[in-house]
Amino acid sequence: MRVLGIETSCDETAAAVVSGEGEILSNVIRSQIDEHSPYGGVVPEIAARAHVEVLDGLIEQAMAEAGTGFADLDGVAVTSGPGLIGGVMVGLMTAKAIASVHQKPLIAVNHLEAHALSARLTDGVAFPYLLLLVSGGHCQLLIVRGVGDFTRLGTTIDDAVGEAFDKTAKLLGLGYPGGPAVEAAAVDGDPDRFDLPRPLLNRDDCHFSLSGLKTAVRREAEKLEPMTDKDRADLCASFQAAIGDVLAAKTGRAMETFVSEEKVAGAAMLGEGGAHRQQGPVGDLGTKTALSPRPVLVTAGGVAANQFLRNRLSNLCADKGFNLVCPPPALCTDNAAMIAWAGVERLRLGLVDDVSAPARARWPLDPGAPPVGGAGVKA
Ligand code: KG4
Ligand code: ZN
After folding, report:
1. Which structural domain, as residue segments, surrounds residue 144?
2. Whether the predicted pLDDT of 358 surpasses 80
3. I need a labelling partner for 219 at 20 to 30 A (CA). Which of 23, 38, 75, 291 fits?
4. Please, which residues have CB less than 5 A from ligand 2, an ion?
5. Which residue from 311, 333, 362 has its CB within 8 A of the most atoms of ligand 1, so it is best to mutate?
6. Given CA atoms 65, 70, 74, 78 in this order, what sign does their dihedral have?
7. pTM for the whole structure
8. Pair 66, 189 in one domain
9. Residues 62 and 173 placed together within one structural domain of the fold
């Protein structure tokens, strides 16, 4: 099986071809950082136009690198939400055109599901597992029971984690995208210099609130003006430490819920190596004999590329008896290999779409999750 994946939901245009065994045959990506950095963030109209300009060429490159013709494909998978609607439409229309002309199944992929399933591509994780999804638009804790089967345990009531990184970077003059810039600046900083808030830390649930933290960073920054590089590094380190504490506390709570709800001891890993190293069809992943006695925490989304946070979560997992699975950074940030892989998983289950598939700005993984108190919920 060979599936073409297309990703255009934010500021990366990407195309990839992945095999049914989870081999990444090609994975090309073009970032729009140069187009957006003068504005300090992603400008939706610029993003959509930039996708139009490069997508055809990237698909051609991905197909050539994979040594695949359209006739050899078994399906065309494309992000059809959630995301910036103009960009999503560019990818979706392109995928529909390819699928129609070559008479291939179209798979309309939820971008968040693709992040969620990427750990099965890289590490062959079996269902169920706990997922901490931390990206530019989302901050959620979910139980992943299967393809299209998610229970949301927690979400943010205001900013997403990546958004908090990006806004912090912007107000400290560190440029865009903010996450890698804050992480780099924090390396030489003192995480204890500023006593920043840990919002909702002691509330007995798995929800997040991060806008107050960002405001606290702004207040400290204003007091420091003019800021030195040392001030900036200390503020970034203190900010990152606060995020680490909040993510660890909420994920720790979610682990307890996960273990008691799923009764998972002994059921979560297939052992070392990615899906491409497994024997037999990937559709069997969920039913194979488990080799590890420990439940699994998967982190995915762009913020999962952050090494400080990975270490923090790794310590949490050691304390709680979980295995931590983080896809490599290039497969945590947006990419098309994860879209193609989600396409493989759906295709195996016969979950295909047709040309009526809509582009969706919002598309929650657990539509039945109860609303969370607080303004501007990004569920
Ligand atoms: O998953 P992603 O590429 O796009 C979305 O689906 O949103 O995530 C992008 C987010 C941005 O907010 C970016 O600043 C953040 O991930 N990010 C990081 C790091 N690398 C990317 N945040 C913290 N540390 C990083 N190293
Ligand atoms: Zn993403």
Report:
1. 127-328
2. yes
3. 38
4. 135, 334
5. 333
6. positive
7. 0.90
8. no
9. no
Q: By the 8 A CB rule, do 254 and 279 touch?
A: no
How confident is the prediction for the chain on average, in pLDDT? 91
Q: Give the residue whose CA is nearest to atom 22 of ligand 1.
A: 179
Residue 83 Cα to ligand 2 midpoint, Å, equals 9
Instruction: Give, to the nearest 10 degrees, the angle between helix 229-262 and helix 178-186.
Output: 110
In this prediction, residue 277 carries a pLDDT of 37
The per-residue pLDDT for 374 is 63
Q: What DSSP state is assigned to residue 81?
A: E
Which residue, by CA, sits nearest to atom 7 of ligand 1?
A: 136
Q: Which residues contact 240 (CB under 8 A, 6 or more apart)?
A: 182, 183, 186, 191, 306, 308, 309
C-alpha dihedral sign at 37, 42, 44, 48: positive
- What mean pLDDT comes out for the span 254-270? 75
Model pLDDT, residue 273:
40
pLDDT band for 263, please (50, 70, 90 cuts): confident
Does residue 78 share a domain with residue 182? no
Residues 266/293, Cβ–Cβ less than 8 Å: yes
Number of domains in the chain: 2
Q: Closest Cα to atom 23, ligand 1: which residue?
A: 179
